[in-house]
Amino acid sequence: MDYFSINGLSRLDVKWSRLYNIDPNFLIPRANPHYELIMVADSPVFIQVGQEKYTLNGGDCLLLLPWEEHFAWKPGGGSFFWVQFSSDPSLELIDAGDNLTSLLKICHTSSNFLRTSTNEHAGKLIIPRLYTPSRRYECLHTFEIMINEFNKPKGYYHYRLNRCLAKLIEISAEDLLDKVMSDINLPASIITYQRLVEILNESYMLECTAASIERMLDRKYEYLCNIFKKYSGITINLYLQQLRIQRAKYLLRETEKSVQDIAFELSFENPLYFSKTFKKLEGLSPSHYRDKFQTLLSAGNPSLTKATAPNLY
Amino acid sequence: MDYFSINGLSRLDVKWSRLYNIDPNFLIPRANPHYELIMVADSPVFIQVGQEKYTLNGGDCLLLLPWEEHFAWKPGGGSFFWVQFSSDPSLELIDAGDNLTSLLKICHTSSNFLRTSTNEHAGKLIIPRLYTPSRRYECLHTFEIMINEFNKPKGYYHYRLNRCLAKLIEISAEDLLDKVMSDINLPASIITYQRLVEILNESYMLECTAASIERMLDRKYEYLCNIFKKYSGITINLYLQQLRIQRAKYLLRETEKSVQDIAFELSFENPLYFSKTFKKLEGLSPSHYRDKFQTLLSAGNPSLTKATAPNLY
Hints:
- The structure is a homodimer.
- Chain A is an alpha+beta fold.
- Chain A has helices spanning 100-103, 136-151, 157-180, 189-203, 210-217, 221-232, 236-254, 259-265, 271-282, 286-298; strands at 3-7, 11-21, 35-42, 45-49, 52-56, 61-64, 70-71, 79-88, 92-94, 124-128, 130-131.
- The radius of gyration of chain A is 26 Å and the shape is elongated.
- The interface between A and B is large, with 70 and 70 residues.
- Chains A, B: GO terms for molecular function: DNA-binding transcription factor activity; sequence-specific DNA binding.
């Protein structure tokens, strides 16, 4: 059995969607450059993909790879919905050899809640290549909505189509999780982790000591360090440094405060330690960073003149 | 009045969401590295952003820029939901000087339905910085769902949070469109355009002549050329070339067919014209393209060994 993994932050983009009433043309092999999700409306659907012959029943779903040839392996049959879409990054095909349960460990998505995390920290969703969704009519209804959007296009219909696709993916992924894991509630420690991240986010500019954190959460610091590391993959100290340096970068870019003042404002012991930490995380010194940004700015890069995109730098 | 434009294919990523019952801490200025959407649950909310003092009522929404300082400009007040999120690409801030109606021309999203289009062709959504959504309780309910996902995290909750945010954005954008444009139905010619794109997608490998297209759509070819150009921004001929070259790239990568055979299969007049067209669109010759891909493959780049990502090359 094959599965697909999908980055939770993928740009899913619907290219086209239709209901297809099977006709003799379906006996001719076809392929298209996008992923294609097929869902049977009226059974049966006799479809061959590569060497594999399927007889699909009502509600069955099949996900095709880009350029994968498919056609009816015998005449006749009912109808199916299809949606073609692109995904950035691409879906990954995972073969049956892998351990599905370990794939489905979804807690690591938690690292994405850190203020300093980026797209590649996103968790992955797993869906089978061939499946029958338990919420069959919700899926069929979602296809119905998509077809209507195509037939009577209104403002922002493309955006709505993409949201429909995201919903189809979500339903299929949740189904698989339900089947494989008896308990899809996440462990209670994740709540403590959340609280911890919130406290760090709110107090990183003050002196954030082990004792003060222990007091606020009423948990041993060692335990908090462990769960933070477990869910985020980094240490509390590194995260605090990341938060401070993130703020420092903003202050260097958008204010004229001196490096000394910024070090002081962010509760660094001394400016030297601030510069050292900055260099460790960013690869250049604070004043270099400021110079570099000023140079880019004076070169007239318009996207840098607004405060709209600071976390990109 | 300020507006934000959001790329319809932005990766919207929820960082955190809460209901905040206003307390004296809110008198202290705060800022965070992400966008923040605030929605008033219980009025009033006295909030100052920069030099601007607002008194917000129930249902009012306010969108804050990354690092934008905000705080209560007087004590007291009710509660508000907030969600912090990142967006890739960033939101763009548009000032009141711009012509909103021309911004709201959303038909150009249609170019994104071409098989050969990429992310930057996506349409943009426009939402105001300060607004009161007409579907107030649907928005508040969406916040409620997000808070519940945070408080009782279940598998794939992060993905669901992002879908909730996308919904909040959608509602706000649709509202503005409704207000500014009396008719959000797209013109009937877009249906003809859709049919035309479908026909081109299905028949680009055969000989696709002006006469055959005219016959299938029962419209003058000149008219079809005009609407195709209007919605897609390119000519029918260029699109047909793009489709053929897209397929050619796949055949060059994944099969061992000769350049001659591929030219023939894709109905090019002769191999020379095929090579010329390929070079014009891709910047290198078909055989160069094949060599380059083989080199990458033998260098062991694992993401190239599966047929999962062909349209990236």
